[in-house]
Amino acid sequence: MYRRFTALCLLLLPCISSAANLQIQTWYGGAKGAHTIAHDDYCSSVTTGIEQNAIPILNQRGLKASLGLIAGSCSDAQWQTLKTRIKQGHELFNHTLTHRGMLEPGSLAPISGWDNVKEIVSAQQLVQSKLGYTMHFVAFPSDLATPEAKAFVEALPDTLGVRAAKHLYDGKAAGINEADDVQPMFVKWDSYWRDGKWSLYKPNRGNILIQHAQAAIDDGVWTYSTMHGVADASWESVPVDQYTAYADFLAAKVKSGELWVAGPSDILRYQMTRQFCGIQLNGDTIKADLSDWRCSRYASAVTVDIKLTDQQQGVFTQQGKPLVSQMLDKKTARLAYNPKLGEVKIN
Ligand SMILES: [Zn+2]
Predict the structure, then answer these.
(1) How many whole angstroms from 227 Cα to the centroid of ligand 1?
(2) Which of these CATH numbers, 3.40.50.300, 3.20.20.370, 3.40.50.720, 3.10.20.600, describes 35-267?
(3) pTM (global) more than 0.90
(4) Cα 9 to chain center, whole Å?
(5) Closest listed residue to residue 38, CA positions, set 105, 121, 100, 94
(6) From ligand 1's centre to the CA of 159, what distance in Å?
C-alpha cells in the first residue's frame, strides 16, 4: 500500500504542481461566457437600420458587431463606411455575393444557379479588393447549404468558421456552443423572432436577445445571436427599444467581467488555442506545442493566470520583450499569452 502510494506520488506530483500554477481561462479575460452580435444582409436595400440604429447604439457602448455582407450589393458609399467599421473593430463575414440560396426554406427544394466560386470566392475577392480585408467566417443564405457547398467552404484556407446550416437540414438543433465542444464549421446560433417562433426563447419570458446572452453567462457557453436590421423593413427587424435594452445588458455584463462580446473569428481562435496548443508551465517557462493543425491555424492570445512561486517576482518576457501582466492577488498574475509569439520566461 505504502509503495503504491509512493509510486503514485512520484508519478503525479510533478504534473499536479506544475498544472496548479498555470490556468487558462475558458473565455477571454476570465469571463463566464461569450456572445456574438450578428447582423445579416448588410448592403441589402432593406437593412438600413443596421447603420442607422444598431451601429450607433453599439459604438456608444463600445460593443463590436459582426456584419454579414451581401458583397455584390454594396455601393461605393457603403464600402467607405465599412472601412470605418473595420477600424472600429467590427468583424465582417461572408454572406455571399448575391444572396442567392441553394435550397428553398421550408421545402428544401434545390434552387438552380448556385455557384460556390461565384457566391463565396468572388465575394471574398471583392471585399479584399475594396477593403484589403479578409473575411474568416461564412453564413449561407437562409442558413441552408448542401453538403457539397459546406465542404467547399470548409476547405477554403481563409475559413475559420461557418454558421450551422439549419437543423431542418442537418438534423441537429441550433442553439449554444459548449466551451469544450465548439465546432468551428458548425457554429450554433439563435435567430431573433418577434414572436419567438424557431427561437430557443419566448418573448413572454422577456427580451429574446437578452435571454440568449444571459444563457452564455449561466451555462458558461458561447451564444450567437443572428439578426437582420433594427427598426427597418428587413425580415424580423428588431424594434429599437429591444435592441437598446440588449446593448445596455451586454455593456453592463462586459463591464462586470461576466461576458466576453466578440465576433466569431476571435472566439474560435481563442477556443482552438486554449484546447489544441498544449500550453503548459515548465519551471519558469510558459510553453506551447504548435504541432496540431488546429493550433497552427487558429493560435492567438489566451488569458493565462499564473500562481507565482516565492522566488518569482511576476516579471514576464516573451522573446526578450516585456509582456504586460496584471496581479489578481499577491501571488497570481494574469497575462495574454499568444503561443505563436514564442515562450514566456517568468522572473
Ligand atoms: Zn441573409
Answers:
(1) 9
(2) 3.20.20.370
(3) yes
(4) 40
(5) 94
(6) 19
The alpha carbon of 127 and the centre of ligand 1 are apart by a number of angstroms equal to 17
pLDDT in tens, 54-90: 999 999 999 999 999 999 999 999 999 999 999 999 9
Tell me the domain boundaries of the chain: 35-267, 277-347
Among 204, 338, 206, smallest CA distance to 266 is for 338
Question: pLDDT digits over 191-221, tens only?
Answer: 998 988 888 898 899 999 999 999 999 999 9
Distance from the alpha carbon of residue 193 to the mean position of ligand 1, in angstroms: 14
Each residue of 8-42: pLDDT tens digit? 444 544 444 443 489 999 999 999 999 999 999 99
Cα of 45 from ligand 1 centre, angstroms: 12
Q: How many angstroms does the Cα of residue 316 sit away from the middle of ligand 1?
A: 46
